[in-house]
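Write out this protein's structure.
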Amino acid sequence: MKNRYHLAMKTMLALTALVAPLSAQEIRFPQSAPQVGSPLVVELVGDIKDGKPAWTIEGPAISQGPTNEKTLKIVPSAPGEILVICRIRLPRGEDIERIKRLEVPAATTTQPATTTQPATTAQPATTAQPVTVSPHTEQPHPPARPLPTPPPVPADYAQGDIVRMGYVPAGYMGDGEAKEGLEVQDANRDAPHTPPTCTRVTYRPQGDRWAALAYQFVTTGKMNWGDQKGMNLSERGYQSVRVWARGVMADDGSMPIVTFLSGGNTHDGAPYPASYKVGGEAVELTDNWKETCLKLTGEDLKNTVSPLTVTMTAANNPRAVTVFYLDTIFFSKRACGQ
């Protein structure tokens, strides 16, 4: 009985040590007042143990740099309220969310003093006209249009959800390896297809002129290019992998063009090479959620390291910034077309 008591006490102390730092976390802003156009860094304070942070922002601001570290650099683009959200995913699959609001004041403009010139003759008095000063407002993305009602979530989504299986958007390629080439917010709340969140991808062409983002099964480190085993899905009867996506219209009226792939993404000589690879065709996205299906019938899924990759090129997206959203990514026992 005594040994059981000591074991129970050790277990309780261990759990307390794990949970206490997480519950004490908070988002900290710099003490200086925020200003439109001036970068500022927000910080997640507290020990996150082995948790993985994912930042997202709502309101008149853009983020710069990585969104999966303990700090986030943001630039207010207009006066107003900014909502800063950090979701921490724990190794056990649980999520802890921290939210903080930041108010960006309107810029004040001081008018230069006028100097009265001496007059040799009396002039009729003039009435000064009021001058309206409009602060410059930089829009981080093209103005959003009202979104159509999204299609319903497929009934078999939950059983094959790749995120619940443990796959994460971790593999960055091409321009995605550059500092500002690819920005991924995997806890975004901009009208998701499957609430409460979706993944927002922002592509800014760099030297390679192409980028790719791969969902990977990561058990150690931050990425997996075949140095760790993937999942064995060969006996689950999956006939397809499906992804829902929508784009943001550019100023010229064009929409993002992307290509989806499944499988592959393991390097030459990898100890655990991918057991299959399926390519798709280029897809022009619309402003409403639309499903793309990749056929897996007859494929060997015994080592599925990367079930989905999205690629984009500067040639197909000839603009400074391309924005699109991903959601509802899942394996299905239905064949494409069903």
